[in-house]
């Protein structure tokens, strides 16, 4: 047996702060054992080090894949010298217990973050012996202290100097160590899952790892008896709700966040100035115009009764004219999301209306960097994952299926109505005219009911307007309801067994109809 009372095993890839730390350890009477690279580094710094291979009597083999995976190493970490059985094994096999293990791992995360990384490089950077030692030492924290980060060095030295590296402190180190190995393994599994899914037909891999952090606790959920919080992705994409800044108003609620997200999405795709008016996650108003103020006015007037207390989405920096329009008498707005507010607009919105102190003004970059991101929805016992229905629309494959083709003005309205339709809950029927949503039938269990509601909402204004349906009309009744309301053109995916009957109904009413070939259910 050696006369040295304490031994530390040091095997690290990241050598930050190592020299001072190990000098400190030797001053405290530790004997240091190290693996090849670490030993050379410490010896160059003039610190006496024993190579772990001379202790095990077994060389490092296979390009360092096997360095410390040896019973004399793991026995020295896992052994409990106070237990008679362990003490006998220690004696019999010439094991010399370690009291301190200092390990950090091959830089797997940094390696796979490099854009030019090869698969073989990634695999070679999976550390095997390191995590094994970390886990052994953390398990045996009753006897061993495990140090896994350079940031811990100073405190560990201080604890050792004051003789206070006690069990409670070792337990804390063990918890940090297991957190580190868990994060490390998660990074490996994420990387491999991604490689597997990139190579398979389905875009979703066999396993999904989601990581979110708490951004904000919310007063309550959809209802006051529900607890709630807003968790965000670790690195949220610019332009997402997670990156929005609040410039004014009351604390955001759970429902505000949902509606703000819908408000932004509803106007994001329009090139012209556009405004959305959201209630209960559906647009009750949506419009495009030459100016943002006009778009807002048209959107609010689409359904002014429903618009009271709404959430507004605007796809341009808010100017004074738009702010004035929002403050017009009788209008009440809960929240706004826009790419910005000019100084005058901000002044108006925060001083003029009765609701100035409460209105939540949110600013977020309007980019589509997040387009195509996955969409998640919890169901009991699981999570449904899909591509978000937010790909840019193309009218390349649209077909006129009726005798009459839509006029240019009708075609413009059809495009608008189709773009609006996918932001409305199914069954969705949208009546529109002149770039303005006139009536939405949303979330009804029958398409006919949605048609009747949309017609009722639009009233007389739908004369000469267009109708969009998020999925095919299964029967002619929806078209008959639209015709009765004065609709002149229709747009829908098509694809029903009854298409012929529906087309015949359109021809009979003189309605021009287009098939898009794409459905936009929104459940
Ligand atoms: P060194 O630079 O001292 O040669 O190697 C230090 C690194 O090797 C540390 O990051 C440590 O986690 C890792 N390591 C220690 N033992 C083994 C082993 O048996 N196999 C593998 N693959 N890595 C090890």
TrEMBL record:
InterPro entries tied to this protein: AICAR_Tfase_dup_dom_sf, Cytidine_deaminase-like, MGS-like_dom, MGS-like_dom_sf, PurH-like
**Which GO biological process annotations does it have?**
'de novo' IMP biosynthetic process
Q: Name one GO cellular component term.
A: cytosol
Enzyme Commission code: 2.1.2.3, 3.5.4.10
Q: Which is an annotated Pfam family here?
A: AICARFT_IMPCHas
Q: In which pathway does it act?
A: Purine metabolism; IMP biosynthesis via de novo pathway; IMP from 5-formamido-1-(5-phospho-D-ribosyl)imidazole-4-carboxamide: step 1/1; Purine metabolism; IMP biosynthesis via de novo pathway; 5-formamido-1-(5-phospho-D-ribosyl)imidazole-4-carboxamide from 5-amino-1-(5-phospho-D-ribosyl)imidazole-4-carboxamide (10-formyl THF route): step 1/1
Q: Name one GO molecular function term.
A: IMP cyclohydrolase activity
Keyword list (alphabetical) reads: Hydrolase, Multifunctional enzyme, Purine biosynthesis, Transferase
Q: Which family does it belong to?
A: Belongs to the PurH family.
Protein name, UniProt field: Bifunctional purine biosynthesis protein PurH
Look up and give the organism this protein is from. Planctomyces bekefii
Q: What is the lineage of its organism?
A: Bacteria, Pseudomonadati, Planctomycetota, Planctomycetia, Planctomycetales
């Amino acid at each position: 047996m050696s006369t040295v009372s304490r031994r530390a095993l040091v095997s690290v890839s990241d050598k930050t702060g190592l020299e001072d730390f190990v000098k400190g350890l030797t001053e405290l009477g530790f004997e240091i054992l190290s693996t090849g690279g670490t030993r050379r580094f410490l010896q160059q710094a003039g610190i006496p080090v024993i190579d772990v291979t001379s202790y095990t009597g077994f060389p490092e083999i296979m390009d360092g894949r096997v360095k410390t995976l040896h019973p004399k190493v793991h026995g020295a970490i896992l052994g409990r010298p106070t237990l008679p059985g362990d003490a006998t094994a220690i004696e019999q096999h010439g094991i010399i217990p370690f009291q301190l293990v200092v390990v950090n791992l091959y830089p797997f995360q940094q390696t796979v973050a490099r854009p030019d990384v090869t698969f073989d490089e990634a695999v070679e950077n999976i550390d095997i012996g390191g995590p094994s030692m970390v886990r052994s030492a953390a398990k045996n924290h009753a006897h061993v202290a495990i140090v896994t980060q350079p940031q811990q060095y100073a405190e560990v030295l201080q604890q050792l100097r004051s003789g206070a590296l006690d069990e409670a402190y070792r337990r804390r180190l063990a918890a940090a160590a297991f957190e580190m190995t868990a994060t490390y393994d998660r990074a490996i599994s994420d990387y491999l899952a991604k490689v597997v899914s990139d190579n398979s037909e389905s875009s979703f891999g066999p396993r999904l790892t989601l990581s979110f952090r708490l951004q904000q606790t919310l007063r309550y959920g959809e209802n006051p008896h529900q607890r709630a919080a807003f968790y965000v992705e670790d690195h949220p994409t610019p332009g997402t709700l997670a990156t929005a800044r609040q410039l004014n108003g009351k604390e955001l609620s759970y429902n505000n966040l949902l509606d703000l997200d819908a408000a932004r999405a509803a106007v994001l795709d329009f090139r012209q100035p556009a405004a959305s008016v959201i209630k209960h996650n559906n647009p009750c108003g949506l419009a495009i115009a030459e100016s943002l103020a006009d778009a807002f006015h048209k959107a609010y007037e689409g359904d002014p009764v429903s618009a009271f207390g709404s959430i507004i989405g605007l796809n341009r920096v808010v100017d004074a004219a738009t702010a004035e329009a929002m403050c017009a008498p009788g209008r009440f707005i809960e929240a706004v999301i826009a790419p910005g507010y000019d100084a005058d607009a901000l002044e108006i919105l925060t001083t003029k209306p009765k609701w100035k102190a409460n209105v939540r003004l949110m600013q977020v970059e309007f980019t589509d960097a997040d387009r195509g991101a996955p969409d998640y929805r919890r169901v009991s016992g699981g999570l449904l994952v899909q591509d978000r229905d937010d790909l840019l629309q193309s009218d390349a494959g649209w077909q006129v299926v009726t005798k009459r083709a839509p006029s240019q003005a009708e075609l413009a309205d059809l495009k608008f109505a189709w773009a609006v339709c996918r932001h409305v809950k199914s069954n969705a029927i949208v009546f529109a005219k002149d770039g303005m949503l006139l009536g939405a039938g949303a979330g009804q269990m029958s398409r006919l009911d949605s048609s009747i509601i949309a017609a009722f909402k639009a009233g007389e204004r739908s004369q000469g307007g267009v109708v969009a349906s998020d999925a095919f009309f299964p029967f002619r009744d929806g078209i008959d309801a639209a015709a009765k309301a004065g609709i002149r053109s229709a747009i829908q995916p098509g694809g029903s067994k009854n298409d012929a009957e529906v087309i015949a109904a359109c021809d009979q009413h003189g309605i021009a109809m287009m098939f898009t070939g794409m459905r936009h259910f929104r459940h």
